[in-house]
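Researcher: Here's the sequence for the chain we discussed earlier.
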Amino acid sequence: MKTKLKISLVCFRAGNFDGGHHENFKKSVATLKKFSRELDFDFHHFPRMVLTSADADEARAALEAQRPDFLMLQTTSFPSGENIIKLAKTCKRIGLWGLPETSCEGSNFVNSNNSFCGINMAGGIIKHYLGGLGIQHKWFFGHGDDERFRRRFTLTAKALSAIKKTASSKVALVGGIAPGFNDLYYDERLALTRLGVEINRGHEFSEIQKRAHSYKDSEVAEMSAAYVCGKCASDVKKQDIAVSARYYRAYREFALEYGYDALAVSCWPQIKEETLACSIIGKLNQDGIPAACEGDAPGAVAMMMLRHITGLPATLMDLCGIDESDETALMWHCGPSPEFYAGKCGVTTKRSCQLNDEGGKLTYPLIHDMVFKPQPVTFMRVTGEWDEMFLLDGKVIDRPKPSPDGSRGWIDGLNFNGKPVKTLDFFNTVLTRGFQHHYPMMAGNLAAVCMEMASWLGLKMMRVCEYEDYKQ
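Model: Thanks. This is the structure I predict for it:
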């Protein structure tokens, strides 16, 4: 696949250091081959260690042909600085891999590889001598079976894989942003420049509506039978299910036909004349098409990025309040979450009860009513001018607590950028910073891999603004 991450390895050696570098070279190649199967990336390595300038020229030619996304340069023993310069210029994202010494004894390091000094020098060369070329690097130290090496490398492979998939992705905004939700406005040109993702805001809701109404009644009967998730409330009519099934198929076929990797759906007011889009969006997410409600294209991009990391369904939440008595925050939305997140009571497909302008009650089909199952969750969004990352994680509580109908969960153990944060400080941060009111959510604690993505992408991290009584 063209979106599969490509990682290359080149190992250096010096003639006057030999602490077992030939054996280390073989072990390192075997390690990355093993990781390539576990983490699903393409792996190439230069078949011998680079010693001479001619070796470096040959390795450079191989790298220019391979065009790796990430280049691991291992100082299997101390390298030539000139050779480092030649190869560092072939890739914008580099890992510098040093190995521990087997022994520190012996005259003049005869039995060593002087590997740590090698990556120290290589990092200095990239930062200072090649500083104007925009090359980024991350250090690695230890053998492939060392736990720290495994953790650091796994984060990098997952983050860069998600970045590459995002950079070849297409997202559609259908029908525009929900009226008045102006905090969700964005510049799609900056999304392309900073993330490589293409956003098309040119599709009208009428395209989906026309497609939805084109299906025969016989087709709709079959679609309806497979549409409902979990239980179905008693007031749900067959027609409610049929209409939602039509639109679900229309959005799904629209995405597949145009090759869109994610959708931002203007779920009201247009579609509200026939149905609500909530359960439709939930099913799209469940079935592998990240879909954000209310025309939130940046939210759809973040949901897609989170899915690229985990392969799991994402959802989009509102922050509806905090409870300082037990340090929890309520994340809720009207009912667009996939069944993947449902707790022990499962999903109830039901009608939504809402008020009209005169205060009368109206019901609309269909939403996914659920309380989330207890598990770690992460909220991430690229914000600002596509140059800043918002990052929060916590755990869905495993105890009863009142909440309104819809898709929802109370979250405790909050962390901001991987560090514990009080609910009031979190609340103050999003209000003071003017953060958008949508929170893309994914199962799992993904703080470290999201921060890794932000670093490679050059995104700054939104910082906590601790609560004070005065205006901040």
